[in-house]
Input
Amino acid sequence: MRDSLAKLSREIVSCRRCPRLVAWREAAARQAPARFRGERYWARPLPPFGDSRARLLIVGLAPAANGGNRTGRVFTGDASGDFLFRSLWRTGFANQPLSASREDGLRLSGALVSAAVRCAPPDNRPTPEEFRNCRPYLEREIAILPGLAAIVALGALAFSSVLEAWKALGREVPRPRPRFGHGSEVSLGGVALLGSYHPSQQNTFTGKLTPAMLASVFRRARRICERSPV
Output
C-alpha cells in the first residue's frame, strides 16, 4: 500500500513502543495542574500537523506534557507553540497566530510540523532508545513529501535526528557531519536543512531566540521553497 500522511498518522497515534513514555504521558493526564484540571488530555503520541503537500518540514524535539500531550496537536497549548506559530503566521505559512486547540481553525500552507519524538518525555529529555524508536516515523514523513525543499530543525537534537533519518533512508549526509547552529544551512541532496534554536521558554525568555531571529529562518525557508523546482 502506498504510504500517506493519513496512514502514518494512524500508526503514530496507536504507538506504544516506549514503555517509559507511555507511562509518563498517561500520568501527566491524571496529574494535570490546577489550570487544566478537568480537561480531557490527548495522552497519546502526536501525528504531524499541516499541509500534506508541504515543501517545508519543521521538526521539533517532543511534545510538552501539558501542551501537545493535552491538546493532541504538536506545538499547541503552550508558550513554545505560541512563539512558533506566530512566526509561521508572520512569514505566510499559517493563517493565524493562534495555536490553542485542535478546534481553533489554525491551518498551515506549504508547511508540515512534526517532532523527533512523538510522546511527552520526562524533563523534556528523550533517551537515545526513544529517539531511535521514533526515527522511522520521521523517515517516512521525509519520504512521503515528494516536493520537499527545506527542513527547519528546532534545536540541536532535532537537527541530529533529521541527519540520522536522512542517512537511514540511504541518502548521503555531507562529511564532515554538519554542525548545528542558529541560522546554519546545509544541502542534503537538494533539500536545505536549516537550524534554529528551539522556541522553548528557556531560549525565548532569555533572549537567546527572538521573534526576529526565528522569522529570519522561516523567511529563508520560504525563499528556498519558492525557488526550488517542484
Notes: The first helix runs from residue 5 to 13. The mean pLDDT is 96. Residues 28 and 110 are 33 Å apart (CA to CA). The helical segments are 5-13, 19-30, 68-71, 79-90, 128-144, 156-168, 201-204, 211-227.
